């Protein structure tokens, strides 16, 4: 059925089931909106006890916006599977496993890793399709539930491939924080989540080479990236997010 409050005639959209959906708010003109639910053919994985994992738990949302001077930009927002152990449950949510058994906990964590890895690989395919052979800039942002240099994040970005294959720049993504201009103030408070007392960067903004100032295909640059995370030290309060907020100021040339 259509989402609550939708205008009459709004088509139903498959999306996240039993978990919050991702969304994008923008003041720019929107040319297109797409949601990706299923993995590309052949990218599903078998998860022990769960069977085939072939679709995103929280489908990525792609919005193609048009800047004031006419330049299109793809914006893709994501929320990958968390590291929280995936214990087996029945349709009513009743536990089917002994959560106090440490070996059961290992398998539950492996399920989460397999699911997040499969989602990252499927997301990589979407990124390749959006970037290959085009000059439309792409911004991928959201909760990756892993750090920028993790295997799963690099599955999506493939930044390291650029070091030995210059052609890979066409379909690579770059961490906006690391692409800031020399005038940007980089502070040692670049974290967006605190897990058991340790700060982590789970919420990331990745950009295509069009926002890399040193690229010959550059159309702009990353001016600065800010992390707003003071509230994470004020105690757990369900009225506040347990994640910080990341803001990137991206500049496109208008000449």
Explain what you see:
- It is a single chain.
- The chain is α+β, with helices and mostly antiparallel strands.
- The chain is built from 2 helices and 12 strands.
- A 6-stranded mixed beta sheet has the order 1-4-5-6-10-7, with helices on one face. It has a two-stranded antiparallel ribbon with strand order 2-3. It has a two-stranded antiparallel ribbon with strand order 8-9.
- Helix 1 (102-131) runs parallel beside helix 2.
- The longest helix has 30 residues, at 102-131.
- Residues 1-12 have low confidence and may be disordered.
- It holds the Pfam family Exo_endo_phos.
Second rung of CATH, namely the architecture: 4-Layer Sandwich
Element-level helix/strand string: EEEEEHEHEEEEEE
How many separate domains? 1
> What overall form do the CA principal axes indicate?
elongated
Q: In percent, how helical is the residue content?
A: 10-25%
Task: Report on the biggest sheet.
Answer: 6 strands, mixed
Low-pLDDT ranges = 1-12
CATH H level, superfamily name: Endonuclease/exonuclease/phosphatase
Strand runs, count: 12
GO molecular function: endonuclease activity
Domain Endonuclease/exonuclease/phosphatase: 91-243
Pfam families: Exo_endo_phos (PF03372)
Organism: Variovorax paradoxus
């Amino acid at each position: 059925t259509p989402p609550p409050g939708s205008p009459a005639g709004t088509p139903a959209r498959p999306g996240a089931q039993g978990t919050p959906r991702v969304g994008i708010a923008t003041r720019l003109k929107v040319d297109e909106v797409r949601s990706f639910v299923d993995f590309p053919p052949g990218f599903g994985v078998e998860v022990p006890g769960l069977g085939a994992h072939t679709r995103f738990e929280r489908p990525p949302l792609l919005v193609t916006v048009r800047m004031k001077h006419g330049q299109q930009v793809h914006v893709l927002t994501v929320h990958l599977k968390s590291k929280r152990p995936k214990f087996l449950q029945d349709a009513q949510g009743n536990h089917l496993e002994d959560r106090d058994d440490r070996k059961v906990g290992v398998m539950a964590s492996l399920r989460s890793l397999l699911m997040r890895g499969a989602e990252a690989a499927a997301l990589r395919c979407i990124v390749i399709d959006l970037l290959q052979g085009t000059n439309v800039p792409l911004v991928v942002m959201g909760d990756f539930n892993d750090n920028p240099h993790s295997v799963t994040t690099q599955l999506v970005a493939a930044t390291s491939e650029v070091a030995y294959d210059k052609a890979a720049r066409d379909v690579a993504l770059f961490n906006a924080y690391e692409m800031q201009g020399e005038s940007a103030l980089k502070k040692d408070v670049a974290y967006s989540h605190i897990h058991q007392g340790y700060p982590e960067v789970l919420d990331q903004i990745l950009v295509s080479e069009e926002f890399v100032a040193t690229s010959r295909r550059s159309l702009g640059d990353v001016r600065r990236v800010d992390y707003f995370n003071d509230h994470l030290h004020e105690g757990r309060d369900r009225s506040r997010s347990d994640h910080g907020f990341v803001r990137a100021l991206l500049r496109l040339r208008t000449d």
